[in-house]
Specification:
The protein has 454 residues and is α+β, with helices and mostly antiparallel strands. It contains 13 helices and 24 strands. Strands 3-10-11-17-14-13-12 form a 7-stranded mixed sheet. The protein has a 5-stranded mixed sheet with strand order 21-20-22-23-24, with helices on both faces. The two termini are 29 Å apart. The structure holds glycyl-adenosine-5'-phosphate (GAP).
Length: 454
């Protein structure tokens, strides 16, 4: 267990350039955040780690990057127009709005008044006008989940890749929800990113695949530094299941503000491909025409092992939020260590593949031309390795540089000094976690780093 507070993380994120409140100079925009110079690197590294393990390291998953603007008909047939709601209540006294299912008592959490309205359904989807005339007749939704475009592109992907069951389609990207009460820093926001996989299987094999994906995802989180001890599995009870789900297991993480959902792994059955095809009425899957009059495509696949009969696959969906992942990863990595000399240091013990800066190259003296030139040359050479961002930084105070890089999670610092120039072309290589330092020939640096980040 960690006793890091949300304030520790918010402060680090702002101070060091991971995450800023959006539109901050104008007072911000509630539930919206911007990723700064280090945040963008961390986010990209995390998304790459997900893509690598979900797409590249498997032989049964394709990728997709679909549009955010979504035809309303898609979200009508998916059920989002009618069911993607949260219960909203208003406080008649102080005019604040709250989620009814988040209230602990029948009193307003802002002013304590009991003068509350009845709960009513509030749809969470954002709408935007399409085209130059904003008369309400031509609009699109900003997608509330990336999943729907995976379903609507199902036939395109099958036809262009000749995939057979089981196989998956993965997508990472923005999703938008007009949350009634965004809160807890980047935990519940209105604009966020999802990493979603829709894994299509034969009906009847869905439960087995559901369990496989729960195990696969748990192992992935551990590789990102999220301890298994801080995750609990929650079997979502029937009455709480989303409209498309037969069974959902949520991975609940011990965030600084409490145990909450990090990722949901749902068995969506044939609900989505089915409803885009048959408009939720029974129909003959083998017929040429499809009952969904809005659609021109049957979202089904032919079973070559069974007389080419059509089947609508079942879907297992692991769906994780990037912002929640970053919050969990920062929470796991953040620690304050006491040092021998009555001092302490903040260390962000990120897994090296996630660290925003892979190595910092520090010249001992910023006004020594030769040292600076050598440090820049090393930086340029190491940057070419394709490992990630290398940072040349000439603040001139090596001790402070080490502390700063501990705090932002840089695993390796490389210091260029007089010995490098005058004596033996060696540099000091310092390890973030052990703080151990050793001399190394500059020529050995590329292999050392390649090995370190393998
Ligand atoms: N396609 C399925 C789906 O969207 P969900 O449980 O509503 O399921 C999946 O969302 C994940 O997206 C959640 O586990 C969470 O990590 C993330 N997420 C959902 N709403 C969010 C919000 N308002 N802010 C940040 N992340 C959110």
């Amino acid at each position: 267990m960690t006793n890091t507070t949300m304030d520790d993380l918010i402060s680090l994120c702002k101070r060091r350039g991971f995450i800023f409140p959006s539109s901050d100079i104008y007072g911000g925009l509630q539930g919206v955040y911007d990723f700064g110079p280090l945040g963008v690197e961390l986010k990209n590294n995390l998304k790459s780690a997900w893509w690598r393990s979900t797409v590249y390291e498997r032989d049964d998953v394709e990728g997709l990057d679909a549009a955010i603007l979504t035809n309303p008909i898609t979200l009508r047939h998916s059920g989002h127009e009618t069911t993607f709601t949260d219960p909203l209540i208003d406080c008649r006294s102080c005019k604040t709005r709250h989620r009814a299912d988040h209230l602990k008592t029948k009193k307003c959490p802002s002013c304590g008044s009991s003068d509350l309205t009845e709960a009513r359904d509030f749809n969470l989807m954002f709408k935007t006008a399409v085209g130059p005339i904003d008369d309400g007749s031509s609009f699109a939704y900003l997608r509330p989940e990336t999943a729907q475009a995976i379903f609507t592109n199902f036939k395109h992907v099958v036809d262009s890749t000749a995939r057979r069951l089981p196989f998956g389609i993965a997508q990472m990207g923005k999703a938008f929800r007009n949350e009634i009460t965004p809160r807890n820093f980047i935990f519940r926001v209105r604009e966020f990113e999802q990493m979603e996989l829709e894994f299509f299987v034969r009906p009847g094999q869905d439960e087995e695949w559901h369990q496989k994906w729960i195990d696969t995802r748990l192992a992935w989180w551990e590789r990102q530094g999220v301890s298994r001890h801080n995750i609990e599995l929650y079997n979502v009870p029937k009455e709480e299941l989303a409209h498309y789900s037969k069974a959902t297991v949520d991975l609940m993480y011990r965030f600084p503000h409490g145990l909450e959902e990090l990722e949901g792994i749902a068995n969506r059955t044939d609900f989505d491909l089915g409803s885009h095809t048959k408009a939720q009425s029974d129909f003959d899957i083998h017929s040429e025409t499809i009952p969904n009059k809005d659609s021109n495509t049957k979202l089904a696949i032919q079973d070559i092992e069974n007389d080419n009969r059509w089947i609508i696959p079942y879907v297992i969906e692991p769906s994780a939020g990037v912002e929640r992942a970053i919050l969990a990863i920062l929470n796991e990595a953040y620690r304050v260590e006491n040092l021998d000399d009555n001092k302490s240091r903040i260390v962000l013990a990120l897994k090296p593949h996630l660290s925003p800066i892979k190595a910092a190259i520090l010249p001992l003296k910023r006004n020594n031309e030769e040292i600076v030139r050598k440090a820049l040359e090393i930086k340029r050479e190491l940057q070419m390795l394709g490992i990630g961002r290398m940072l040349y930084e000439d603040t001139g105070n090596i001790g402070k540089g080490y502390r700063r890089h501990d705090e932002i999670g840089t695993p390796i610092c490389i210091t260029v000094d007089f010995e490098t120039i005058d004596t033996d072309d060696t540099v000091t290589v310092r390890d973030r976690d052990s703080m151990a330092q050793r001399r190394m020939k500059t020529a050995e640096l590329p292999d050392f780093l390649k090995d370190f980040y393998r």
